[in-house]
Input
Amino acid sequence: MEIIDSIIEKTSQKIAKSRKTTKKLINISTITNEFQEQITRVDGDIPADLKIINGERFLFISYEQSRYTHGLHKYPAKFFPELPRFLIQRYAQKGAKILDPFMGSATTNVEAMLLGFDSFGVDIDPFAKLLAKVKTTPLDEYELRVATNYIIEKIKEYKPNQAVEYIPSFPYRDNWFASFILDELSFIKKVIIENLQNDIKDFFLITFSSIIRNVSNADDNCTRTVVRKRLHKQIYPSMALVKFVENLLLNQYRMIEFSKKAQSNQTSIIEYDAKNIALEDSSIDLALTSPPYVNAVDYPRTHQLEIYWLDLAKDSLLELKKLQIGTETVYKKEYESLRRTGIDIADSVIEKIYYKDKRRAYIAYKFLADMEKNLQEIYRVLKPNGYYIIAIGNNRIRGELFESWRYLLALAQRVGFSIELYFGSEIIKHFIKVKREERINTDWVIVLRK
Ligand SMILES: C[S@@+](CC[C@H](N)C(=O)[O-])C[C@H]1O[C@@H](n2cnc3c(N)ncnc32)[C@H](O)[C@@H]1O
Output
């Protein structure tokens, strides 16, 4: 297949070019932002001893979002790697055990391994668990190269209608995918499942998954899975085969880079729920995470097409959604009456929301109640003097500013933590002019100590 040979050539050139341009950059400057405030801008790696005053805001510019296994697959609300790297270097001593209780795509764990630490990860979402496992499992370079070449040769033998038994059935499948794409995807899946095993197979399945949104009719750049007619997305025959080979070569390179550097450290993915973690009391030195935002991202819906193709769920995703902290799946009997957290600054906002929308008020209350359970659980598993570091942004709920980070600070103190430090990280894509009081474009990093 000529088209596959030409994509191999192009992708190899792209990798060779990126090899040359990968350089370490550390640069700190003071800039004036849109609000005429002076803030510190850090490009690239953040120095562990960066001077930070409580409440200070920074603009961090990331250059490594696709490097190592970070780039294997998209995931909503990912950490930029420089942030956990900086926090681990600043707060973990040699030999420390690190935990991310809402690990998502395991950015914290990948960074922990690259820095020479063992770590643990918890996530309720089955897709996150598979992705995290692949991103934190080093592979043997030789075996990976042999498997890659073998699978590419098989892909070149593609003929339609050879793998219909691998097409999953799920709601609206034929609206999400063109029939020739269903055919190509099922062929790729068959080639992987029938020829590979164990960790290598999972790496190929995640690479397979990484093209699914791209070759579907859904908008590539939306956290929800939606078809937008006016996008006029171009889907063409052999697109899935070409994209797969392209991503496979890129991911192979990323995995080799990661595997060489990660050495012998391990990540253990443990069951199950960030409110109930199967770890001993006082066993962890540093917990570091970005929890879900209240009603901001519906994780199972975001990667629903991938979940179905990987056979991680059948039919409805409702059961998966209910387990998520910040879930919008709540029942009428739960939200009839006004609920209070006992934290005044939170309750006054929840009350304002309640008079506009009882359901949303309950969602906000439940988010904080669940996060308090998570804070208690992390308090239990942390060693005395251990740190819990949380990065979280604010939301607007029915027009009311919901400052999650401030409420979490208050809840953490109620649980017994002391506050070590808090600082803001401007979110670059929102670095635009909005009224000061409407600004929700900062993630807050709070450092708590047991
Ligand atoms: C903001 S994301 C984490 C992203 C991660 N920092 C990364 O770099 O990919 C939040 C994660 O919390 C998970 N989550 C939600 N509720 C949970 C629960 N009850 N227990 C464990 N994980 C949960 C979601 O599935 C999602 O993966």
